[in-house]
Amino acid sequence: MYKKTLIYCAGAVALCMAGVAWRPARIDTDKGLKDYYKKYFPIGVAVTPRELKSEEGKLIVKEFNSITAENAMKMAPLHPEENRYYWNDADSIMAFAQRNHIKVRGHNLCWHAQAPAWMFKDSAGNDVSKEVLLKRLKDHITTVASRYKGKIYAWDVVNEAIADDTTFLRKSKWSQITGQDFIAKAFEYAHAADPKAALFYNDYNTEQPAKREKIYKLLKGLLDAGVPINGVGLQAHWSVNNPSREELEKSIQMFSSLGLQIQFTELDISVYSGRQGGQLINGQQQQVKSEFTPEMEQQQLEKYKMVFEVFRKYRKNITGVTFWNVSDRYTWLNGRGRKNYPLLFNADLQPKKAYWEVVNF
Ligand code: 9MR
């Protein structure tokens, strides 16, 4: 036993010196995240069609049992003109999932961003009426949800409808033209098209008390009105500084008290502090070195460890945890001259230390 440990330690040091990710003793290299969490909830990932054909494809099959299209199922990519749908990317993701027995989360049917401009305008370039907009929303949702009926276990029906400021509803073309009605209607259309899919409202900053209250109020109102909604998606674009364990647990408790399922739909942990994954601090981009320092690594693994402890504690309420992107090779958080390292796999697609914290329970 002593000898074995010694051999392991020497091996680990050699691996570290060779720049290979650190990993603990007695790992089962055949196991992926989905296997460690088999008795808990599916573990998903947001993907692009290109990744599925490259090296990432193998990693996805090994580690995950749910996928979400990062962009391919959104309204503008899918429905660029009133009478034209572009299905190739979304269909290729569905085909990959079916070939590999992976579940698919649909994202999303109605959002203020990535909505095509034509949706809101008539042929003269004026805003359409509420009736016309709801009819177009119905056509879109019916077409998309029917095409994938029975193949998508959960749909983000409405995304990010609550405002970040002190107002209630986010100002968008949807709210400007229909008031709050587009929300309930979207759920009704989705339910009619695919009655078995679980239907979700999805949003970010759900651990901030003021925003959480507003989302709670929205969801309670929908439930009281008999709207077919099954769950709330907490995006989980977090950072090394937030959320706290307390706020995270409070969100899970509050939303579960409504009888809704909870899914963490877009998890990543930015190594920079700030809001929405740490891109902005006081409205300014922070000037920092684009380097994954040992301090960042430590802070990040502690945050990952904590949030997965909480997820396991609330396993009865949580029906899925999805990462937003596969590895640090590509993340939506890169940009503005700065690289981020928010995921469990490094740019060489190797598990980071944080990975071993997440599966060590
Ligand atoms: O990761 C997505 C990125 O590639 C797109 O450019 C962006 C467009 O706004 O959307 C990103 O995904 C978002 C998701 O659909 C909804 N929640 C926030 C995500 C990150 O912005």
Describe the model.
The protein has helices at residues 2-17, 33-36, 49-52, 55-63, 75-78, 88-99, 130-147, 173-178, 181-193, 209-224, 245-256, 294-313, 353-359, and strands at 43-47, 66-69, 103-111, 154-159, 198-203, 231-234, 237-239, 261-270, 280-281, 284-285, 318-323. It has 361 residues and is of the alpha/beta class. It has 2 domains: 1-29, no CATH class; 31-359, Alpha-Beta Barrel (TIM Barrel), CATH 3.20.20.80. An 8-stranded parallel beta barrel has the order 1-2-3-4-5-6-8-11, surrounded by 5 helices. The chain has a two-stranded antiparallel sheet with strand order 9-10. α11 links the parallel β7 and β8 (261-270). The longest helix has 20 residues, at 294-313. It starts with a helix and ends with a helix. The protein binds ligand 9MR. The site of ligand 9MR has 8 residues, from loops.
Element layout with pairings:
Blueprint: H1 2-17, H2 33-36, E1 43-47, H3 49-52, H4 55-63, E2 66-69, H5 75-78, H6 88-99, E3 103-111, H7 130-147, E4 154-159, H8 173-178, H9 181-193, E5 198-203, H10 209-224, E6 231-234, E7 237-239, H11 245-256, E8 261-270, E9 280-281, E10 284-285, H12 294-313, E11 318-323, H13 353-359
Parallel strand pairs: 1-2, 1-11, 2-3, 3-4, 4-5, 5-6, 6-8, 7-8, 8-11
Antiparallel strand pairs: 9-10
Helix pairs in contact: 7-9, 12-13
